[in-house]
């Protein structure tokens, strides 16, 4: 029971409400400091923030990129458009990111505002469209003081026709954004207000490209492209006003490969002679030119592309149901990609960086990416199409507690996702739910996706069966209903999914081997993984896992997804570090490991990367400790020594080095110093604890809401509460514990009430539970997760 309480307290996720303090306007852009950054961050400036055309499958010549410096402000929820703004933000990098130049948290009772001026000269008879790649979560758009549109949903693109409000000359564009992250009803993926372990920093506001486009009065609004390799044709529908003629021309290497002419809005069939099929090893793409005609006059024209490929489940020569690509069995050897960046969070620093992730995953010898509960910008899917990788696209999971409105918000986001991503040949599989996170109406929604897009596979529930350390966590009597796949998650070691008629068996997640690489960590005190290994041992552990995959493939397994390609914040179980600088198993060696299951590697992209140093980190630390003994007292050396000591588990060494470094720190402390204090402080007795206690507002401003309070509470629990909870059935002396923690003030009281509430809930002690639980919820209930609050209140209300 004590272990259970400690486990719950380890993942405290509490939200504070610090006051709003205005920032002085920034005179020039500068990236905010972060723990580590990728090589592309230094290339980012207001003049070149993601300049590439953002929508390659519906491209026009006449457009203007609005990325760059905007003004921003954070206000109370009910505030009007601000008269003055707090400073500048680099769009399209999210508010909390270093690349935004701001790196501030947005709380649920606040609103984020953007403002910029636009010079426009609208042409008579044309429309002006304002496009947003994505804004998280709920957006209201104003132009010249007039509301021109709204959008709800943090992951999909939207367009607003601003023709009526636009004027010649200077126009003032303002956005209001509401993003409660995990406290709201909308899908939020891995974003949480208090990130830890498998959950990460939020990305509020604009996080994809914003651009203007001039179009004719009647124009091509979209294309619907579905390849049919069995009939050697492309089904195409041109979304444009009725009454027009459209022509669509397919080109391969500049030569016409097929053409069709018909009516707008009507399904057409574009015949392709001798189609060149798309696979990861040979990602053949066709260019597509589409014209909207009135008589012989071209009214509008767009450029696009497509790939000829087919995905299906069929029986192999032995009668086993498997995943087929282009009518042949094709093992989907994949990895679980979260799509986070240390410098831009949800937003890659550059287009080259965006492509790098796919190149690196291919260079490892994978042929599949499971894009995990995030929708990427259109250019990511363009690179997946062009470079050649199968994509399993997750829907962004709903709020796990399913508060009122969450189901409708999830379904709306799913509908937009299916429409937005339909044309990409790389996407072969839709993944509806993950590990019962917000699961509801699974049969209805699975069948809805299959009906909406019969050209792809539907994985109705990835990890509906979940094993951790050989123990089944989630039995499901009606699993995988109406889906094309049965999907199991098994950590750390691989296993096969259950067998059901007509369904392929896949391993939706496995692995998660944690290996930390010093100096390449977001959090130097953590190396989270399902199991932990030293760098030198990773290759052999990983090889054995893949050998078992070969055995499982012979037993009917059709796909595997390894967790994961890159470290992400506190998770250090990637095959590469979070900054994309170090690969933990050399590319040539990991490709050999993967080759038996992926013979379709094709030409490997050239990747500049550093192989991991296989020296035992403890040996490196030991050498550094000897340097300290021999007299090295350089401040930067002391700082690094303390972090290495923490990683090596030498608490005494960490305290010695950090105390000496703290002695040379002078208030007011920089953000880097405060982050360092938060990393290395391991006890209430450490000097750093008092620094945290005396600088909570500055820490929360630098690192996010409630970070200082949560850190102090965990240390108070570790040092003063947990040791006082006896093993066995004896009850703790809560009066004595309270006397001990009272001097810590609010953090001491909050963690005391939390610990006592959870302890007595676990013991099912109603008499002792009710008064302390009521006090806990009355005083600190705003910081308690919804699921946990429901459990507490349900037990309180039991007779």
SSE topology sketch:
Blueprint: H1 2-10, E1 63-65, E2 68-76, E3 87-91, E4 110-120, E5 126-132, E6 135-136, E7 138-143, E8 146-152, E9 158-161, E10 169-178, E11 205-206, E12 210-216, E13 222-228, E14 233-239, E15 245-252, E16 255-263, E17 268-271, E18 286-294, E19 297-306, E20 311-315, E21 321-325, E22 328-329, E23 332-337, H2 351-363, E24 368-371, H3 378-387, E25 390-394, H4 406-421, E26 427-434, H5 442-452, E27 457-462, E28 465-468, E29 471-472, E30 485-491, E31 504-511, E32 513-514, E33 531-532, H6 535-554, E34 557-563, E35 582-583, H7 587-594, E36 610-611, H8 617-629, H9 635-648, H10 651-664, H11 671-680, H12 687-694, H13 696-703, H14 707-721, H15 734-741, H16 746-762, H17 766-780, H18 786-797
Parallel strand pairs: 23-24, 23-34, 24-25, 25-26, 26-27, 28-30, 30-31, 31-34, 32-33, 35-36
Antiparallel strand pairs: 1-12, 2-3, 2-4, 4-10, 5-9, 5-12, 6-11, 7-8, 7-10, 13-14, 14-17, 15-16, 15-18, 18-19, 20-21, 21-22, 28-29
Question: Care to give the gist of this entry?
Answer:
By secondary structure, this protein is an alpha/beta fold.
Could you characterize the architecture of this molecule?
With 799 residues, this protein is α/β, with parallel strands linked by helices. It has a ten-stranded mixed sheet with strand order 27-26-25-24-23-34-31-30-28-29. The longest helix is centred in the C-terminal third of the chain and has 20 residues, at 535-554. It starts with a helix and ends with a helix. Belongs to the glycosyl hydrolase 2 family. Residues 245-309 form the Glycoside hydrolase family 2 immunoglobulin-like beta-sandwich domain. Residues 112-216 form the Glycosyl hydrolases family 2 sugar binding domain.
């Amino acid at each position: 029971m004590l272990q259970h309480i400690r486990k719950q307290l380890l993942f405290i996720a509490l939200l504070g409400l610090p006051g709003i303090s205005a920032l002085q306007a920034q005179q020039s852009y500068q990236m905010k400091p972060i723990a580590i950054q990728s090589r592309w961050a230094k290339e980012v400036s207001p003049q070149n923030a993601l300049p590439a055309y953002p929508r390659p499958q519906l491209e026009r010549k006449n457009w203007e990129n609005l990325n760059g410096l905007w003004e921003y402000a954070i206000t109370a929820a009910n505030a009007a458009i601000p008269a003055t703004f707090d400073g500048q933000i680099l769009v399209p990098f999210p508010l909390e990111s270093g690349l935004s130049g701001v790196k501030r948290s947005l709380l649920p009772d606040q609103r984020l505002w953007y403002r910029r001026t636009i010079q426009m000269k609208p042409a008579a008879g044309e429309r002006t469209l304002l496009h947003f790649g994505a804004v998280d979560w709920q957006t209201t758009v104003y132009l010249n003081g007039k509301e021109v549109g709204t959008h709800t949903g943090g992951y999909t693109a939207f367009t607003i026709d601003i023709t009526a409000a636009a004027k010649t000359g200077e126009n003032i564009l303002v956005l209001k954004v509401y993003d409660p992250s995990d406290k709201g009803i909308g899908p939020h993926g891995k974003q949480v207000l208090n990130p830890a372990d498998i959950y990460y920093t939020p990305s509020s506001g604009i996080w994809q490209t914003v651009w203007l486009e001039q179009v004719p009065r009647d124009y091509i609004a979209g294309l619907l492209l579905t390849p049919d390799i069995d009939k050697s044709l492309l089904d195409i529908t041109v979304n444009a006003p009725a009454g027009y003629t459209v022509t669509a021309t397919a080109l391969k290497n500049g030569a016409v490969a097929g053409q069709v002419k018909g009516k707008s809005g009507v399904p057409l069939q574009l015949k392709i002679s001798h189609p060149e099929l798309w696979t990861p090893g040979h990602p053949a793409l066709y260019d597509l030119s589409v014209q909207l005609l009135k008589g012989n006059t071209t009214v509008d024209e767009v450029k696009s592309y497509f790939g000829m490929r087919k995905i299906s489940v069929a029986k192999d020569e032995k009668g086993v149901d498997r995943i087929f690509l282009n009518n042949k069995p094709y093992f989907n050897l994949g990895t679980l990609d979260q799509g986070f960046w240390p410098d831009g969070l949800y937003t890659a620093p550059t287009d080259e960086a965006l492509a790098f992730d796919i190149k690196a995953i291919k260079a490892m010898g994978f042929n599949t990416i499971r894009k995990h509960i995030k929708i990427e910008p259109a250019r990511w899917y363009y690179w997946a199409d062009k470079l050649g990788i199968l994509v399993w696209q997750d829907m962004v999971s709903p709020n796990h507690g399913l508060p009122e409105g969450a189901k409708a918000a999830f379904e709306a986001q799913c509908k937009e996702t299916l429409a937005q991503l339909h044309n990409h040949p790389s996407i072969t599989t839709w993944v509806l739910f993950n590990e019962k996170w917000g699961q509801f109406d699974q049969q209805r929604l699975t069948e809805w996706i299959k009906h909406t897009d019969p050209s792809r596979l539907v994985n109705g529930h990835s990890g509906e069966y979940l094993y951790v350390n050989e123990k089944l966590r989630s039995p499901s009597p009606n699993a995988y209903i109406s889906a094309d796949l049965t999907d199991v998650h098994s950590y750390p070691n691989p296993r096969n999914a259950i067998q059901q008629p007509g369904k392929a068996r896949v391993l939706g997640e496995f692995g998660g081997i944690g290996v930390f690489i010093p100096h390449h960590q977001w959090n130097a005190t953590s190396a989270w993984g399902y199991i932990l290994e030293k760098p030198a041992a990773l290759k052999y552990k990983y090889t054995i896992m893949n050998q078992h995959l070969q055995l499982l493939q012979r037993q009917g397994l059709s796909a595997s997804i390894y967790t994961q390609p890159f470290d992400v914040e506190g998770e250090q179980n990637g095959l590469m570090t979070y900054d994309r600088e170090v690969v933990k198993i050399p590319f040539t060696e990991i490709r050999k490991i993967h080759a038996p299951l992926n013979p379709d590697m094709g030409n490997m992209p050239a990747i500049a990367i550093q192989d991991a140093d296989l020296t035992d980190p403890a040996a490196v630390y030991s050498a550094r400790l000897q340097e300290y003994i021999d007299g090295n007292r350089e401040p930067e050396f002391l700082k690094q020594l303390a972090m290495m000591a923490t990683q090596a588990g030498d608490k005494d060494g960490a305290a010695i080095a950090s105390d000496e470094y703290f002695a040379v720190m002078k208030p007011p402390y920089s953000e880097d110093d405060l982050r360092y204090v938060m990393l290395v402080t391991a006890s209430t007795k450490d000097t750093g604890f008092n620094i945290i206690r005396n600088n909570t507002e500055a820490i929360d401003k630098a690192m996010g809401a409630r970070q200082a309070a949560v850190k102090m509470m965990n240390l108070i629990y570790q040092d003063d509460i947990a040791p006082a909870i006896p093993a066995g059935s004896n009850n703790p002396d809560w009066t004595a514990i309270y006397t001990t923690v009272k001097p810590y003030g609010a953090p001491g009281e909050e963690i005391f009430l939390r610990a006592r509430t959870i302890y007595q809930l676990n013991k099912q002690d109603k008499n002792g539970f009710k008064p302390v639980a009521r006090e806990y919820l009355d005083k600190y209930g705003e910081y308690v997760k919804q699921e946990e609050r429901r459990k507490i209140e349900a037990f309180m209300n039991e007779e």
